[in-house]
Amino acid sequence: MTHDIHEQDPISPPQARGADARRWWVLVVIALAQLMVVLDATIVNIALPSAQTALGFSDGSRQWVVTAYALAFGSLLLFGGRLADLLGRKVVFLTGVVGFAASSALAGAAQSFDVLIIGRTLQGLFGALLAPAALALLNATFTDVKERARAFGVYGAIAGAGGGIGLLLGGVLTEHLSWRWTLYVNVVFAVLAIIGGSSLLRGGRPAHRPRLDIPGTILASGGLFGLVYGFSNAERHHWSSPLTWGFLCAAGLLLVGFTAWQRVTRHPLLPLRVLADRNRAASFIVVAVCGAGLFGVFLFLTYYLQMALGFSPVRTGLAFLPMIGVLMVTAQMSTIVLVPRFGPKYIVPAGAVIAAIGMSRLTGLELSSTYAADVLPCLIVIGFGIGLVVPPATSLATTGLLPEDTGVGSATVNTMQQIGGAVGTALLNTLAASSATNYLKGRRPTPTALAQAQLHSYATAYWWSAGIFVFGAVVSLLLYRTGRVQQARTTSS
């Protein structure tokens, strides 16, 4: 069986063998595009109060600025990944980058709430094209074991640290320019990615094009939409609300129907062979678990730093930099040295346990705590743990995929990250709010009592986040195979 060489190796063939430096420039392009998508989940959060003042929308509507992006992105990822397999990774990647930039400019220039929401929805749509194509390109470009380890170390570090980078960049842009620049900044990233991608990437239509599974696309997109929307409603309403359990039940039914359809259709959207490998299945679960657990750091620690310690948005973002630095260094160590030597079965669970320990230590924070003595050590430990988990899991989730499955396989990684984030946000917010309410029962709502209730709610979220990471450790210990991973090439001849 033969495949289009352009689709197998996204770098121009004459340079692919003789100039490895071009591969690393491809990584820069992919990293820029992926950073754009990842940080957009948090960069707008800090700008929301300013945007609300400028456009005059209500507190009840504010959540839609975040939810509109998450709904479009999460529900269309599998479709976007399959389009990359169908039309070619380069075409879908560049379409996603151009569309993301245009929709970011539209949202940034919005003079009304409706236009802002349309822009955010389009960002999610084009992000769903961009993200899986980027990971598929990375998977096809770096087939050498050592190069692949380094490349996925960088990619995994961006996936793990993107939320913190978004907080920092959002704070800087909002404080020194305008909330609109939290959206306009994507145009800068996109222009660089378009220039680099157009000149470095190659790839026409694949020689063997899968047919688009339209019923499967409808079932999967509907199920994922219901899942994200249901959990988003749990944040704003309650688990007993029909808008919560109704959408979650509908999502469950649609996803069960999707799975059944994938078993019988000749051209499945998500071939079940993608999920059959034990290491890959473990990686998908670990990616989702980390997506859920990380919100305990970025969300509630942001609240603590600003409300309890009085940090500005910029200083809050800077506070996460040590964690991001440790994560990036550990990402390289885990993908280049540890996992190739010892395999993932013990390295990934160890990282999850270390992250859980760091998270549990955050439960001891008080109003009198300090950043240097109490927060910083926890962030360093968490960053070290995440660096042992996310980059190897991301790499293993795409290792050994058939060429015709790289797009949808990469989309599954992104989908698990997105679903994990949605579940984590809803679950931790609900648990934290219930904890604060229970703490105040029988107490006078004095300023001190209210502050302590907030601290109590944060601690509850940290404990649950630690528990989520422990769950990830157990799952990865049980599912990952013992021994080194055989790094299969993703091309075939």
Shape: globular
Regarding CATH, which class of the largest domain?
Mainly Alpha
Distance between the termini: 5 Å
Tell me the domain tally: 2
In CATH terms, what is the architecture of the largest domain? Answer: Up-down Bundle
Helix-strand makeup class:
mainly alpha
Note the run of SSEs as H and E: HHHHHHHHHHHHHHHHHHHH
* Rg over alpha carbons: 22 Å
- Provide the helix percentage: over 70%
CATH superfamily of the largest domain: MFS general substrate transporter like domains
**Named CATH topology of the largest domain:** Growth Hormone, Chain: A
Our count of helices gives: 20
Largest sheet: none
Fraction of residues in β-strands: under 5%
Please tell me the overall pLDDT. 81
State the low-pLDDT regions, or none: 1-19, 488-493
- Annotation, overall tally of beta strands: 0
SSE inventory with pairings:
Layout: H1 5-8, H2 13-18, H3 21-39, H4 43-55, H5 59-87, H6 89-108, H7 113-141, H8 145-176, H9 181-200, H10 214-236, H11 242-264, H12 273-276, H13 278-298, H14 300-307, H15 313-319, H16 321-342, H17 344-361, H18 371-398, H19 406-440, H20 447-479
Helix pairs in contact: 3-7, 3-8, 3-9, 4-5, 4-8, 5-6, 5-7, 5-10, 5-19, 6-7, 6-9, 7-19, 8-13, 8-15, 8-16, 8-18, 10-11, 10-19, 13-18, 13-19, 13-20, 16-17, 16-18, 17-18, 17-20, 19-20
Describe the structure.
The chain is mostly helical and 493 residues long. The protein folds into 2 domains: 11-212 and 269-479, Growth Hormone, Chain: A; 213-268. It is built from 20 helices and no strands. The longest helix has 35 residues, at 406-440.
